[in-house]
C-alpha cells in the first residue's frame, strides 16, 4: 500500500490543511504509467531537432506543461516547448521555488540552478531572465517566499523582493534576523543595528 500526503496551500491566508489518501500498488502502477505516457506525449511535441541537442528531455513538473528539464554531460537546464533556453545547462540541479504574489493573489514561481557544494546559485524568471547570483544557500526572509536573502561574493547579505523583481535597498548587511516580523527585519551593518522595512527603509536602533 502507498500512502500520499497532499498539501493544500492558500496564497492569501497561507493556511495549510492536509488530507491523506491511500492507494494500492496496482492503482499506483496504473497512475504512474498514465503519467509517463502523458509526459512522453508532451516531450514529443517539442521539435525533434531541439530534442536531439540533449541526452535527455523530460517534463519538469507535472503541473507545468510549458517547461522541460534537459540533461547533457551530467548537467541540467530548462527549456520551454519552443526550445527556448530558460535555465542554461550548467547546473547539477534545477529547482522551482514559489512565492505569493500579492498583486495577483496567486502563487508565482521562478527557477534556481545550483551545483553541489559550489556557488553561485543562479536565479531565473520563468521567462528565462537571470535575476541575480547568490553565494549561499536559498534562504527566505518571509514565510510566503516573496522576500529572500541573497549573499554577495564577499558574504554580505541583500534582500530581494520577487514580486517587484528588485532588491529592496541598495545596501548590504553583515547579519540579519530570520524572517521579517510585522513588516520589519532586524539587520546589522558595520556594527550598527537597524530595523529594515519591506519597503526598504532603515531605522537605526539603539
Strand content: over 45%
Please state the overall shape, judged from the principal axes of the Cα atoms: elongated
Structural class by sheet pairing and helices: mainly beta
Strand order of the biggest β-sheet: 3-4-5-6
Number of helices: 2
Residue-averaged pLDDT: 88
Total number of beta strands: 18
**Mind telling me the C-alpha Rg?**
20 Å
Report on the biggest sheet.
4 strands, antiparallel
Low-confidence stretches: 1-10, 12-16
Describe the structure.
This protein is mostly beta strands. It starts with a strand and ends with a strand. Helices cover about 10% and strands about 50% of the residues. The chain is elongated, with a radius of gyration of 20 Å. The protein has two helices and 18 strands. The chain has helices at about 25-45, 50, and strands at about 1-10, 15-25, 55-60, 65-70, 75-80, 85-90, 95-100, 105-115, 120-125, 130-135, 140, 145-150, 155-160, 165, 175, 185-190, 190-195, 200-205. A hairpin with a 6-residue loop joins strand 1 (about 1-10) and strand 2. A four-stranded antiparallel beta sheet has the order 3-4-5-6, covered by helices on one side. Strands 7-8-9-10 form a four-stranded antiparallel beta sheet, with no helix packed on it. The protein has a four-stranded antiparallel beta sheet with strand order 11-12-13-14, with no helix packed on it.
Amino acid at each position: 500500500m502507498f500512502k500520499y500526503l497532499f498539501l493544500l496551500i492558500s496564497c492569501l491566508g497561507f493556511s495549510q490543511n492536509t488530507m491523506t489518501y491511500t492507494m494500492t500498488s496496482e492503482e499506483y502502477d496504473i497512475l504512474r504509467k498514465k503519467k509517463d505516457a502523458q509526459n512522453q506525449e508532451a516531450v514529443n511535441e517539442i521539435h525533434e531537432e531541439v530534442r536531439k541537442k540533449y541526452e535527455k528531455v523530460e517534463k519538469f513538473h507535472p503541473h507545468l506543461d510549458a517547461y522541460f528539464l534537459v540533461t547533457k554531460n551530467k548537467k541540467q537546464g530548462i527549456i520551454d516547448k519552443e526550445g527556448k533556453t530558460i535555465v542554461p545547462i550548467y547546473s547539477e540541479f534545477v529547482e522551482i521555488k514559489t512565492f505569493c504574489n500579492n498583486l495577483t493573489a496567486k502563487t508565482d514561481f521562478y527557477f534556481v540552478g545550483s551545483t553541489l557544494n559550489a556557488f553561485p546559485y543562479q536565479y531565473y524568471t520563468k521567462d528565462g531572465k537571470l535575476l541575480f547570483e547568490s553565494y549561499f544557500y536559498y534562504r527566505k526572509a518571509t514565510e510566503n517566499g516573496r522576500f529572500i536573502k541573497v549573499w554577495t561574493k564577499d558574504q554580505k547579505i541583500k534582500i530581494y523582493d520577487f514580486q517587484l523583481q528588485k532588491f529592496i535597498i541598495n545596501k548590504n548587511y553583515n547579519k540579519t534576523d530570520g524572517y521579517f516580523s510585522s513588516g520589519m527585519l532586524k539587520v546589522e551593518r558595520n556594527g550598527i543595528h537597524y530595523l529594515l522595512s519591506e519597503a526598504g527603509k532603515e531605522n537605526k536602533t539603539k
